[in-house]
Amino acid sequence: MPPAATHRWPVTLEHGEIVLRPFRRWDQEEWMSLRSRNRDWLRRWDATNPEPHSALKSYVEMVRVLNRSGRDGTALPWLLCLRTSARGQPVIVGQLSVSSIVRGSALSASLGYWIDRDRAGAGIVPTAVALATDYCFGTLGLHRMEINIRPENAPSLRVVQKLGFRHEGLRRAFLHIDGDWRDHESYALTAPEVPEGLLPRWEGRHRRIPGQ
């Protein structure tokens, strides 16, 4: 595997029509419009802060903190974008973040995502998750990726099931979501389980089973 030193933030990943790229200050209007349209759709799954005094106060501050975490190597905060035409700029359709990156004896990270309700179920999120996971296994040299999902979140559960993440059990009161501590189902995948890469495996399965 390439050494972790090959990683330099900012990083943009592209595959077909899907683009994972860092946040920029001038994305504010587009990002906030997307969040506003999806407020009700995302409310049940959005992380909330039980320490309100430490919450970020503005979009600009959020971008600064997220990109600092990318430079520090503790997270990979990406906008999930989609090319809708050959010449047009990719439009923002969601977010994918790799967080809690740990090196040393663990070499692990957690991954989370959300997408515009109108784009859900089109195979965009599984492809983006596979793309990000392969970057973490290949370029970052990580060993383990983990995704934690609320038991009621059927669309997200379908994503990890399609990609072959292993179910490792229930974490009680794991994250503060929608104003309270919520249980999460924990799923994981290690690099040796996908020696060919997760994206090639997903695309091979996707071609064999149309509509997945």
From TrEMBL:
Ribonucleoprotein in keyword set = no
Which Gene3D superfamilies has this protein been placed in?
3.40.630.30
Which keywords annotate this record?
A: Acyltransferase, Transferase
Under the heading SUPFAM superfamilies, the entry gives: Acyl-CoA N-acyltransferases (Nat)
Which ranges carry the N-acetyltransferase domain? 18-192
Please name one Pfam family that this protein belongs to.
Answer: Acetyltransf_3
Similarity field: Belongs to the acetyltransferase family. RimJ subfamily.
UniProt name for this protein = GNAT family protein
Query: What is the species of this protein?
Result: Citricoccus nitrophenolicus
